[in-house]
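Hey, I'm writing a tutorial for new members on how sequence and structure tokens pair up, and I'd like a real worked example in the thread rather than a made-up one. If someone can provide the structure for the chain below, I'll link this post from the tutorial.
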Amino acid sequence: MGGNGVVIITGGSRGIGAATARLAARRGYAVCFSFHSDSVSARTVAEEIEAAGGTALPVRADVAVEADVERLFATAESLGTLTALVNNAGVLERQCRVDELTADRLNRVLTTNVTGPFLCARQAVLRMSTRYGGSGGAIVNVSSAASRLGSPGEYVDYAASKGAVDTLTTGLALEVAGEGIRVNCVRPGIIDTGIHRSGGEPGRVDRIGPTQPLGRGGRPEEVAEAILWLLSDAASYSTGAFVDVSGGR
């Protein structure tokens, strides 16, 4: 087990999740991360962590499926005591207006981006809360600046799902504050990851990045730094907090 215990990171095979997995391993966590379908990328991330002397356990799981979430957390127990959760897994679909949305699309986005973090938070609380005999821990939810900006003309459904993650952060933080668990949130802005291809615009960072107050898009590693700070004892008096990693936007 890592010196800081075990962290579960959802969506850890690429982008912000992969950067967080690598940094968490360097900071002394044993890392268990989920991936949805890209086993090649998941294996690559795990091999990189292990080559650097860390511990990594990739688990194929759909966070929108309750049985998969239960299996993810049960599998992570082989690494030791769970001390941290990063609710990172998320999806978006092609850019469109609200009047072009379908129920099927809404359900796909909301089950992954809202149901998933709730199901994972439940399993984490059951293991970490002093109410259930745990020793405490920390949860970081990965939201988006979209929750504040609305993403008009692109993906209001994604933005709304991240608004729900913001509310989960506030409510859960207050609910478990007396049970040894801190719950905080990171809201990335325009970050250079593959998720923009899902929205139909692979070059979105190049288009929007220069318009940000800091003049560029962000890197996944910059978001990972904020996540690891919130998980650490350096943030021991922070709960229900939001850290915007959005270049000033």
